[in-house]
Amino acid sequence: MSAPSDGPILDRLIHEPGRLAIMTVLSTVESADFVFLQRATGLTKGNLSSHLTKLAEAELVTIEKRFVHRKPNTNVALTATGLQRITQHWDRLHSLRNFSAQSLSE
Amino acid sequence: MSAPSDGPILDRLIHEPGRLAIMTVLSTVESADFVFLQRATGLTKGNLSSHLTKLAEAELVTIEKRFVHRKPNTNVALTATGLQRITQHWDRLHSLRNFSAQSLSE
DNA sequence: CACACGAAGTTTGCGTCGCAAACCTGTTTG
DNA sequence: CAAACAGGTTTGCGACGCAAACTTCGTGTG
């Protein structure tokens, strides 16, 4: 059967709204800096910072800190596993949505 | 613009994996009882119970407790607003996924 | 009858988490 | 120089989800 009770356990680390937004944006873009991500996701600096730290600890993103025009510039990109995981997460969301009740009838 | 920073703030109450599963299953089915939902979602009794309580407190579902064949039977259904909210939630997830970076360029 | 057992839920304890607010550090601006 | 600002980081705390313990009612079974 292919009920939601199967594999599709949603990973909280990625599912959390802020991080889902971050990961999804990153999956469309090669790399992005802190300010861009903040605008793209609507997160506050503080929350974006701590979400990025978590994602980096899980090795889903890489973070590079530089100076550009004498200002700090934090550049973020998905790792290979990060890309795989966000893709998989969206797949699981889709299969959850496409769930149909009769698959439980056995 | 239609960036994720706009409306699409994801509602944690519905977004939580267990409740997202519950609500999604309920949206396909008119009504379901406790045991059915447990199998459909893969949640433990305890967690299903507490999630249902939260959903009921938010008036997204109605809960009716009966006895069937002398056994307790808890029947759950979406309210009108519940259906609206889960539908809206999936819409927002889709627009998040379909986000394209250039909408920020202004 | 008494006692165990199971089904169907509920309650509790606790570690974890996300958020807002405070803080930090270097750079312009008045 | 002081003040404001840009770009982040750290902290405090209330809320939350999970697993495990508890409850209640009904059904064997010796």
Shape of chain A: elongated
Number of helices of chain A: 5
State the total count of DSSP E strands of chain A: 3
The chain pair with the largest interface is: A-B, 28 and 28 residues
Summed over residues and divided by their number, the pLDDT of chain A gives a mean of: 89
Reading the helices and strands of chain A in chain order gives HHEHHEEH
Low-confidence stretches of chain A: 1-5
- Helix- and strand-based class of chain A? alpha+beta
What is the rounded distance between the termini of chain A?
A: 9 Å
Helix coverage percent of residues of chain A?
A: 40-55%
Query: If you compute it from the alpha carbons, what radius of gyration of chain A comes out, rounded to the nearest whole angstrom?
Result: 17 Å
Strand content of chain A: 15-25%
Oligomer: homodimer
